[in-house]
Amino acid sequence: MKIINNVIDYSFLSSFDIKELIEALVIPIRTDSIYFVCFVCGESNVSKVYTNSLIKSYELSKEEILFFLSDIKNRVKLFELVLKSKESENINHTFIEEFLDILIKKSIDLRASDIHIESLEQSMVIRFRIDGTLKVFYVFGKEFFSGLSSFIKLLSKLDITQIRLPQDGRFTKKKEKKNYEFRVSIMPTINGESIVIRVLDNVNIKKNIEDLGFSNHIYKNLKNITTLKDGLVLVSGPTGSGKSTTLYSLIKEFDFETKKIITIEDPVEYKISQVQQIHVNDNIGLGFKTVLKNILRQDPDIILIGEIRDKYSLDIALEASLTGHLVLASIHANNSIETLSRLIDLKADSYLLSTTLKYIISQRLVLSICKYCNKNACEKCNFTGFFGRSSLCEILEIDNIVSSMIFEKKQKYEINKYLENTNFMSMLADGKDKVKRGFTTIDEVYKVVSRNEI
Ligand SMILES: [Zn+2]
Predict the structure, then answer these.
(1) Most buried among 26, 54, 232, 446, by the most CB within 10 A?
(2) What confidence score (pLDDT) does residue 202 get?
(3) Which of 162, 186, 202 is the last residue of a domain?
């Protein structure tokens, strides 16, 4: 699929009726005096669109053909802009801006979290990350890359002459009267540069608890957490498992007017008004430790610690939660029981832990079956059969028995044995339940639940 854009003669392709191409399942590549060259699949009917010459065809899957043709208007337009830019003598920003605008509009429409623009040895590849998965959308010649890179730097107020060192910036774009924010990272590579544009507004952070696709029993427990006055609540899972989204959605449930809420983050990516967010910055001496050391003097009710990363941050979290504060934090661990082991590895005081720990949430994100086509592949899901993600989750409520087991430093298997006789539902069980209800596939569930990082 990756080579498709590169080999296609778009002016030839544009001479066809797109609807007919979709019906015939054919992507014309080019023609010469002898051959009509095209991409086809098992169900294609080439004679429906072309009969003038011999046919030379290359095989693609039906989904790939439909994915390509469904977006043909943008592909042709982008190709024309690349050509026009090449033809004009000086770097022409009008064409480049239009090119970038198409990518940005597309990223918003697709709910993409990131746009990746990479210069490779011969080509420039544009990919979008949608629901956690990268997909190649466009491939063009490499000549256009430097102009596009300079324009993005200009837009993000970066040094356009700098191509040897990494740069970070931001820009805002208006679409349908709404301002969208983008964070840009540019990294020099052996073939040029890799540009990643994060579409900040497309990230799930703005969602409320009810929109995150939790099962009912999880949702009820999460609601209970929002009534806590003090204690420690931990969210665990590998990177990209939706921990921050869950933490933010919990924070948003509290009354901002009567509670002092402070977050310590590295970095702050999403602003919540009326919450005191602290952006940790080691370069200026505002390190994690410095902030934690002073945090209680800020008279907080609720503290969100971006990540419990060492004994120091854990001790502060325990101390704060023991002295009448509610502390929410994320921690790297594979599931709720392993979170307990991780806390013990960090040499947590078992008395403090058993007294303060209230809940451990552990989660993964699982792809949802496309609600528009029910896994049959359609334009909405880019012919993948999946659209959006929901959370697989387990919540370990620290009841009196678990609490005393923590105090007595019981082994994992002993806690597991106790849980078997309670209504604790593991992540895998939550996943199987979602499969039964038609929300996702069993393959997806096994894939994400077995995704262990530690
Ligand atoms: Zn679909």
Answers:
(1) 232
(2) 59
(3) 202
